[in-house]
Backbone:
């Protein structure tokens, strides 16, 4: 099998087709970007604004690329066609990692197009590389119904619920940062409030579906006023909503705030006419999983993310140049 080709200067028609296949695969597992994403990705790859490698469809088809955010890369590997797909995926991921810019400290890669057993074998081969971590995530879903129209438990004294529009993006990003600090989720987003602000801005701009401010809310303390919880929702389809983000300040956990926000979000979506709600959760987030299980969510799909972090000694060597 030949080595993957660089996407820099590659035919736009080929990259458009591969990006469309990737988008379709993401949609099949309930994670589909919106808007002109396909065209944007293809244009960025051809122009070199994104780093990528590919196999043309005449050779089975495959695409791997990453986007740079600060000192981290976030990317994806997709293969089309059954024959040789496992080897193509491994070769695409390997060249992407070997050609990673020297100033990047980590790269996260998602995978689509492989049967579960083949994907596991690819991950096992990649995991021998120093600095490797494999992160598992689950898509969960719950049907909404008339029982979700009932009021939830009252808030504890000293707290009030406000529309999300009453809260600044900076405050939301700070809460996200506090809520996920030190967890596996932090690895997927970044280690600064600026990273969370960037992701939140994209979500609220409709990157994963039309944002629903009427089904999004925040919890704040009254004296002094401080954001301690929030839930953000969007529309995936005419009858289906998605919880984009859901966080509670660690200092205020154990008071039922998470369940109160979750049940309010479901009630708001039901009132808007949605018949189901969807979310993603990292498998290692056991506290969140228990909450979702207790409230009737069931796992409908899974995804695995491969993370590579540059060894500290190598990072120091690069920084000294």
Residues:
């Amino acid at each position: 099998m030949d080595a993957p080709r660089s996407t820099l200067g590659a035919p736009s028609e080929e990259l458009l087709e591969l990006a469309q296949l990737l988008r379709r695969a993401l949609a099949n597992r309930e994670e589909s970007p919106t808007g002109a994403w396909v065209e944007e990705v293809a244009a960025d790859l051809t122009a070199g604004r994104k780093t990528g490698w590919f196999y043309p469809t005449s050779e089975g088809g495959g695409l791997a690329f990453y986007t740079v955010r600060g000192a981290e890369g976030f990317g994806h590997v997709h293969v089309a066609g059954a024959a040789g797909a496992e080897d193509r995926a491994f070769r695409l991921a390997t060249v992407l990692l070997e050609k990673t810019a020297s100033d990047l400290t980590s790269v996260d890669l998602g995978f689509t197009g492989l049967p579960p057993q083949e994907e596991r074998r690819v991950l096992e081969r990649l995991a021998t590389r120093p600095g490797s971590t494999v992160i598992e995530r689950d898509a969960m879903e719950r049907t909404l119904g008339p029982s979700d129209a009932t009021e939830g438990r009252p808030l504890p004294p000293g707290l009030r619920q406000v529309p999300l529009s009453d809260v600044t993006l900076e405050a939301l990003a700070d809460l996200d940062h506090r809520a996920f600090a030190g967890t596996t989720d932090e690895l997927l987003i970044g280690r600064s409030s600026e990273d969370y602000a960037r992701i939140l801005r994209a979500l609220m701009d409709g990157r994963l579906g039309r944002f629903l401010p009427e089904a999004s809310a925040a919890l704040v303390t009254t004296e002094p006023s401080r954001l301690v919880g929030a839930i953000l929702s969007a529309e995936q389809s005419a009858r289906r909503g998605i919880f984009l983000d859901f966080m509670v300040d660690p200092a205020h956990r154990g008071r039922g705030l998470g369940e109160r926000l979750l049940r309010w979000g479901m009630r708001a979506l039901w009132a808007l006419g949605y018949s189901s709600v969807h979310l993603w959760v990292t498998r290692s987030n056991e506290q969140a999983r228990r909450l979702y299980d207790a409230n009737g969510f069931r796992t409908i799909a899974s995804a695995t993310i491969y993370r590579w972090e540059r060894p500290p000694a190598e990072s120091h060597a690069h920084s000294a140049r």
User: Anything to note?
Assistant: The two ends are 36 Å apart (CA to CA). The first strand starts at residue 5 and ends at 6. Residues 316-321 have pLDDT under 50 and may be disordered. The first helix runs from residue 12 to 28.
